[in-house]
Structure formats: C-alpha cells, structure tokens
Write a structure and sequence with these properties.
The complex is a heterodimer. By secondary structure, chain A is mostly beta strands. Chain A is 0% helix and 50% strand. Chain A contains no helices and eleven strands. In chain A, the strands form two sheets. In chain A, strands 2, 4, 5, 6, 9, 10 and 11 form a seven-stranded mixed sheet that branches. Chain B is mostly beta strands. In chain B, the strands form two sheets. In chain B, strands 2, 4, 5, 9, 10 and 11 form a six-stranded mixed sheet that branches. Classes of the chains: A mainly beta, B mainly beta.
C-alpha cells in the first residue's frame, strides 16, 4: 500500500540551527501539506502546497519556515533558525487530485527536538 | 470560543460497547468533516469524511453531522481493543487543496478486553 514517508524519524538540533525535514509523498498525489503537533496538543496546519507554490499558510508559518519540492518526489520543510518552541512532531501529508484535504494521507512524522 | 472543541477523555469502555465521540465547532463556514485515528507516536489515519449534514456509515463506524447544532459525532459499534487510540475530528471550509484543516484536540479511547 502506498504511503507517505518522512525522514528522519527523530531530529535533535541546537537552538538557532537550521533543519530540513524531508517527505516523500505518495507518487500520484498533487497536494502536499505540513502539520505540526506539539506534545499533548492538537495537530496544527502549517502550509499547503500545490503546483509548485504555497496555496495557503497559517500564522505559525512565518519567515523562518519554507517549503520546497526540489525534485519530482521529495517535499521538504526548512526551519531556518530553530527555537525551543519549534520542538514538536511534524507531519507531512499528501492527497490526490480531486480529493484534496478531505482525504489526505499522513506520514509517520518527524519528531524535532530543539535543545 | 475555540473553533473546534473535543473532550480529551480518556474514555474507557468494555470490549463490544458502542462508543460515541463528539466535537462541537463555532465556524459556520466548515463544510467538510473528517475523523482521524491516531495511535501513539504515529501519524493521523483518516477514517472517514462527510460533507455538510447527514450520516455516513463504513463498517463499524458511523459519522454524523448536524450543522444546525454545529455538532459532529463518530460512533463505533462492537468496539475492539484494537480501536484503542486517540480520535481526532477535523474540519475544513472546502475540499480544495488550499484550504487548511482545523483539528480538535483528540479524544483518547481505551477499549478494555
């Protein structure tokens, strides 16, 4: 069964460092998303991406965040200068044409710990 | 008032019980309503979604939406220990890919054998 793959599963970084979280969406999907979940809190939308550009972003997705689809398979989230409060589980999701966000498939997540 | 409210539980039920999970919301623009299941330290897994008001059934799961009351429910019949997980309601204003999805905080369910 096709799945969304995220790497690494756990990333520890020092405050102020840049991190790149990687995702391989399901191959025929065209909509891509990043969400985050701070421990014990709800899943929060960060950004959606379609046709090589950001479709929508939340207030959390400020200038320190960026997304990119560098090739035909990967979708990345970059955090330029990490803060302690960026520690969270980051989920990538994707959905196929016509289904969009109502049938998004989530990856297993990358746990980011900023120390 | 929070956009989406969900009782965090935990909710413990004996195996075979009918489980009722609920969310309320305040944003009348929401049109699509989803239920996700999330096992510990895993990503959310979509169970089902409904559009506007009404019911939808899929096996042991039934989703109900009452837009007039801004209230949605997920019923699980003949609950199994494998149903033990956190259940997240989620909503969006449109199915378009650019629309963000707003999640509830999740209800933790434990089904006791």
């Amino acid at each position: 069964e096709p799945e969304v793959t995220q790497t690494p599963s756990h990333q520890v970084t020092q405050m102020g460092q840049e991190v790149i979280l990687r995702c391989v969406p399901i191959s025929n999907h065209l909509y891509f998303y990043w969400y985050r979940q701070i421990l014990g809190q709800k899943v929060e939308f960060l950004v959606s991406f379609y046709n090589n550009e950001i479709s929508e972003k939340s207030e959390i997705f400020d200038d320190q965040f960026s997304v990119e689809r560098p090739d035909g398979s990967n979708f990345t989230l970059k955090i330029r200068s990490t803060k302690l409060e960026d520690s969270a589980m980051y989920f990538c999701a994707s959905s196929e044409p016509g289904q969009a966000n109502t049938e998004a498939f989530f990856g297993q997540g990358t746990r980011l710990t900023v120390v | 008032q929070k956009e989406v409210e969900q009782d965090p539980g935990p909710l413990s039920v004996p195996e075979g019980a009918i489980v009722s999970l609920n969310c309320t919301y305040s944003n009348s623009a929401f049109q699509y309503f989803m239920w996700y299941r999330q096992y510990s330290r895993k990503g959310p897994e979509l169970l089902m979604y409904t559009y506007s008001s009404g019911n939808k059934e899929d096996g042991r799961f039934t989703a109900q939406v009452d837009k007039s009351s801004k209230y949605i429910s997920l019923f699980i019949r003949d609950s199994q220990p494998s149903d033990s997980a956190t259940y997240l309601c989620a909503m969006s204003g449109d199915s378009g890919g650019y629309q963000k999805v707003t999640f509830g905080t999740g209800t933790k369910l434990q089904v006791i054998p």
